[in-house]
Amino acid sequence: MTKLQYTFKTDTLFKMLFVQYPELLKKLVAELLSIPFENIEQFIIRNPEMPPENLGDKFCRLDINMIVNGQRIDIELQVSNEGDYPERVMYYWAREFSSALLSGQGYSLLPRTIIISIINFELFDYAEYHSLFQPLEVTHHTLLSDKMGFHFFELPKLPADINKNNMLLLWLSLFKAETEEELEKIKEMEVPVMSQAINAYYTITASSEFREKERLRAKARHDEAQALHHAKIEIAQKLLKRNRPIDEIVEDTGLTYEEIKNLKENLK
Questions:
Q1: Mean pLDDT score across all residues of the chain
Q2: What are the residues whose beta carbons fall under 8 Å from the beta carbon of 160, sequence distance 6 or more?
Q3: Lowest-pLDDT choice from 56-65, 136-145, 172-181
Q4: Bridge partners of 35?
Q5: H runs (alpha helix) in the chain
């Protein structure tokens, strides 16, 4: 197996590819939201920019924000579970929803706002790979409003066998793919839109513009990881000085037993 250097989960690639090939994005959104493609009359990407100076910011989100038939739609990829993802999603939804109301407008004019999360980890304790959350009354399950929606697509839960006629699973399989062989297997199904997406993938990843943006983004990821590791070491040192057991410090910080044992020896 030949591991891909970049995957469809790479956020810089995701943003560049679907901004530069909006028809592919439109087809992806149609499948994720179960909207007939021909019924999408309004399709606007609201944040196509990806300024290089922002890529080094750990708080930079490479989501794609759109207006689709009057609805505000946001798609984001999340590779790892940092423990507060549902709250993060609700925060971004609240910001998008509230910012849509212009001065003097009534609340009824607030648009339907939907957050789509394609995630590379299991978030919910059931087998289905797709979950849709909306505000419901807990006893009667009455829908409070259709203006709030959260779609989660959990890639690890995808079935192993993908039917070429299931476009949603084909799209999600692109995001799940980690090797060239997996992409080739999808391409061999001869589904035109999949071939277009894979060809676009190779075009984008070969470009110097993408390589530079990904270099800046990768540096930001590395710097953030280093800062987090350093913070964990500082916490571990404080806990050691309080004579906390090593096993508890491992659980609290995520550092290895050997790392904490070495820290303890160096404190002497």
A1: 89
A2: none
A3: 56-65
A4: none
A5: 11-20, 22-32, 52-55, 85-99, 167-176, 180-187, 192-205, 208-241, 246-253, 257-267
Side by side, the strands of the sheet bearing 130-133 are 43-45, 64-68, 71-78, 113-119, 148-154, 130-133
Instruction: Please give the Cα distance from 214 to 207 (Å, whole number).
Output: 11
**Residue 83 Rama label (left phi>0; alpha psi -120 to 50; beta):** left
77 three-class SS: strand
pTM comes to 0.82
Q: What is the pLDDT of residues 9-36, one digit of tens each?
A: 998 999 999 999 999 999 999 999 999 9
DSSP string, 12-39: HHHHHHHHH-HHHHHHHHHHHTT--GGG
What are the beta bridge partners of residue 118? 77, 153
Going by their DSSP bridges, the two strands 130-133 and 148-154 should be labelled as antiparallel
| Tokens (6 digits) for 177 | 């793919």
Calculated CA dihedral for residues 238, 241, 245, 250, nearest 10 degrees? 30
d(CA 252, CA 235): 9
Q: Amino acid letter at 116?
A: I
For residue 184, give every residue at least 6 positions away whose Cβ sits within 8 Å of its Cβ, in sequence order, or none: none
Cα distances from 202 to residues 4, 192, 196, 207, 208, in angstroms, run 11, 16, 10, 9, 12
Gap between the Cα atoms of 47 and 64, Å rounded: 6
